[in-house]
Design brief:
370 residues, alpha/beta, seven-stranded mixed sheet, three-stranded antiparallel sheet, 16 helices, 49% helix, binds iron/sulfur cluster
């Protein structure tokens, strides 16, 4: 767990994350700003263009291989504890973006972590996994060019975790994750195995690998880079890189969407009425009265409704900029904007659910559940 002295910035993949100022992450945690690289990125993703991907670790290394059309990999995954929400949507879209740019693609179902962190039995997580993989396929993941696997069934990942155990002391694990039960430390070693598996001989050996992560997952990258350096002589690992994205605010105005707080988020499989209700009652950056809003404008920087558009549901950059200015100038009112956003979200969700339904059989096949 990474914490600044005044506790205003906490990065904890197994717990609470608090970020008051993203700029501090550059100075205090060694995350590098992404913006200076943007011009060199081929066909940058929507998140990159909008500074949602705000940081990286060592991404230059992946960028050069992308530009030269050389061998590189992307690796990420999902903890199968429920339906796709907007955080997992973001990571999945980033993975699909890198796949479209030529990356060998690895997507893990983190069922060991779901067990250790959320007490979800392997049987139960298998059921969630079928839906999650179908979501991934519905979003455009090409399974012919990618490897989807479950941690509990991938021997190569487990073998790496066993070997990495010799490279991590209890003091290191405590420094990165805080005082936790041993199962969580074990699942962190397994994640290191996930991140480095693409570099094994079975997958054509060492190669630059990018892991798109929400900023709360950065501690896993720090551990894995440390382990990759320690076991470099044995495996010839290239230190893995990351792109780091911001975390969406909760709909209720809380700093982060969280399953512990149902009013703060929705999933792609909630009933349309539930989604509409949650967006209608969302916190906004608006003024207390219509008159004030018209006169002074709203505050989109502090508005979860604006974030829904900007992070996820408006594809056209110019349209997002227009929404921003219309809010700032007082032309757009919160009620009207919420209505537009509900329409956009429900259209996306409806179409996505239809595509997902068609992907369920393929998902069962991939997870060997026929
Ligand atoms: S108009 Fe829209 S972006 Fe502006 S504060 Fe209201 S809901 Fe947020």
């Amino acid at each position: 767990m990474s914490v600044t002295d005044d506790k205003k910035t906490v990065l904890d993949p197994f717990g609470t994350t608090a970020i008051e100022d993203y700029n501090r992450l550059y100075e205090e945690f060694g995350i590098q700003p992404f913006k200076p690289l943007l011009n060199r990125v081929p066909n940058p993703s929507m998140y990159m263009r909008r500074n949602v991907v705000f940081g990286h670790r060592d991404f230059q290394c992946v960028l050069e291989t992308m530009r030269n059309h050389e061998d590189f990999a992307v690796m990420s995954g999902i903890k199968p504890t429920g339906e796709f929400h907007l955080g997992t949507l973001m990571t999945a879209r980033e993975v699909i973006y890198f796949q479209s740019q030529g990356a060998k693609t690895f997507y893990c179902i983190a069922d060991v972590e779901a067990y250790e962190d959320n007490k979800i039995s392997f049987e139960r997580s298998q059921k969630f996994a079928v839906g999650n993989v179908a979501d991934l396929l519905a979003l455009g993941f090409n399974p012919k060019k990618g490897c989807i696997y479950q941690q509990s069934k991938e021997r190569r990942v487990q073998d790496l975790a066993i070997i990495f155990g010799r490279g991590a002391t209890l003091a290191t694990m405590k420094a990165i994750y805080g005082e936790r039960h041993i199962g969580l430390y074990l699942s962190a070693l397994i994640q290191a195995g996930d991140i480095l598996m693409p570099q094994l001989k079975d997958f054509d050996g060492p190669k630059p690998t990018v892991v798109p992560v929400g900023v709360d997952q950065d501690p896993h990258l720090r551990l894995t880079r440390d382990l990759a350096a320690k076991f470099r002589r044995k495996y010839n690992f290239i230190l893995p890189s990351s792109t780091v994205h911001k975390i969406m605010k909760g709909l209720d105005g809380s700093p982060k969407m969280s399953k512990r707080n149902p009013t703060s988020y929705f999933t792609l499989h909630d009933e349309p009425e539930t989604i509409a209700k949650k967006i209608s009652s969302a916190f906004t950056g608006g003024r207390p009265t219509v008159e004030e809003q018209r006169k002074l404008g709203g505050n989109p920087e502090n508005c979860p409704v604006y974030e829904l558009d900007m992070y996820q549901f408006v594809e056209d950059d110019d349209k997002v900029i227009q929404v921003y200015h219309d809010c700032k100038s007082g032309k757009l009112l919160c009620g009207e904007h919420k209505k537009q956003t509900i329409e956009r979200v429900l259209k996306f969700v409806k179409e996505h659910q239809l595509r997902k339904e068609k992907s369920m059989d393929r998902s069962r096949e991939i997870l060997h559940m026929e």
